[in-house]
Amino acid sequence: MAARMLSSLVPSPSTDFSTPTKNKPSRQNTRVLSTGSVSSATEPSTSTAITRTAVSLEYASLRHSGHCPLGMYVTPSPDNLMVWDAVFFVHQGYYTDSILKFRLTFPPDYPEHPPVVQFLTDVFHPLISQQDGTFNLAPRFRPWRPKEHHVFDVLHWIKAAFKKHALDEVKEADCFNREAYRLYHDTTSSFAALATQSSMLSQSESALFDKDHPSMAGKGSHSMQFKELKPDQLEALRRKLGLQDWEDVLEKGS
Q: Where is the composition biased (Polar residues) (predicted)?
């Protein structure tokens, strides 16, 4: 089976702002991510120059250390600055090894109101609607303060929401998926099994490579696409990026 890898070299205008871990590739990083597809969305005329400037500055700020969470890759849509596509590689917790595509859509009056976060990958999570993938920002931003809160705060909340301490603190009234909430508190083992199932499905070839996957229905195309690599292509890319084989890393660490 052809190997896959996530490249940290994303073509312009995409940039991965995560801080790389030197010579320690993640097990998830076996897929190449590209921005070959183009979103069909067009930039709404209602978004003002001030709003577009604010969104542009938010994207530029992700270059600052610690602003973009490790494991997240973000890019504005080629056709619409007000829509950002992203991929989140989950490294620990109930959702370990999940590969989750999501989208941020900015309102015309941003930053007065927060962006809408929607997961395109199906995921069983208390804060994520099973109907349309909408993610609830309210537990962290109540209320949203335009002069205080930024997109990097939103990204860090998304990442934190998949960790145990956040799941412990979520209130049922804030949950878009109350079944997930109840299972988490009443039958944790069942919740863990469904979270693991979500993780496995998110890694499947159909979820990663099929643009017509059922989970994408009604959500539009995602501008970050995965590409399979043959073993020789993977090895060449590893050398180019200076990455070691995972087994070699384990041997040196033992």
A: 9-47
Residue 105 C-alpha from the chain's centroid: 14
pLDDT for the residue 215: 59
Separation of alpha carbons 213 and 177, rounded Å: 22
In a domain, 107, yes or no: yes
Counting the structural domains of the chain, the total is 1
Distance CA 201, CA 208 (A): 9
pLDDT in tens, 205-238: 888 877 665 655 556 677 777 888 888 988 898 8
CB environment 200-229: b (16+ within 10 A), e (fewer) = ebbbeeebbeeeebebbeeebbbbbbbbbb
Round the average pLDDT of the chain to a whole number and report it.
82
CA torsion, ordered 104, 110, 112, 116, to nearest 10 deg: -20
For residue 1, is it within any domain? no
What range defines the domain where residue 53 resides?
49-222
Residues sharing a CB contact under 8 Å with residue 152, sequence separation 6 or more, in sequence order: 58, 61, 62, 67, 68
**Residue 61 CA to chain centroid, in angstroms?**
18
pTM: 0.75
Cis peptide upstream of residue 111 (ω within 30 degrees of 0): yes
Q: Read off the tokens for 111.
A: 């930053």
For residue 26, what pLDDT is reported? 42
